[in-house]
What does this fold into?
Amino acid sequence: MGRTKLSNSSINPLYYANGVAKFRGLTLPHGFSTMAMGNMASMWATTGEKREINDGPFYQTTGLDGKNRVHIVPSKKSGSIMPWESESDISPIIYLPSGDPSSVRGFACDAVFTTDRSLTLSVCPADSFPIIVTNINRGDAERERDFVALVIAGWRETKRRIVERTITRLLDRIPLIYGVPTKQSQEKFLKSFQVFIGPGVQYCCYRPRFLARVAGAKSDLLSENIKQIVGCGVSPDNIHTATICTCCVKDQNGNYRFFSHQRAKNTGEREGRFLAAVGLGLENPR
It folds into this structure.
């Protein structure tokens, strides 16, 4: 229970430090808060607790700037990528004024992306998969056009093919930002993509209705998102999965690792949300 054997991707185990889960193979500052850090969404806190939600230790552990943050509030109306832009817009960088110590903003969308090293991208999933897309991990001398994207992929977003649409938007927009909008540059750029799929509800605990079984194969959110990513041309070797089920995985003491909407529906336990965040970081890793 809690782990899915996958093709077209590589398993990249999480490690845990100070209540935060991280990918071993991702050098960007990032993390996923566990239940040990408490509920991270005020919507699911009691009235007395709303002021007590403390994400400071999370940002201290991850090294991210929690005060210069763009936060995804998943959109139920339509799959949206921030910023909303016309086809003629060649500047899809999320911008917040530099030097502003309190620039925390929430947007009703399902994906955000940026080339700004000072920004933190965040979301509070229920059971949806937080997906990080970047090219920062290669360490290649020819690597250029650094970016990071954060996608939330629950059943609605997966049905709308949000991760596929995000990768397509990145291929269209990032090369334009850096002044090399050619088909050859896009093909080279795609080879540098690294995708990290964080904790989410797995096939063992949730099977979305809109995904029908095909030839006896499993139909679940994780496999469908991997299929979309591979379909965009990302190498399976560059797709990294935590394969951790938010609904049923427990720690060595028998406690659940993450909050889970699906588990709360099944058990009647109180709901909460974990925090997923990533950023390019102020230091250039080259």
User: Anything to note?
Assistant: Confidence is low (pLDDT under 50) at residues 1-5, 83-102, 138-143.
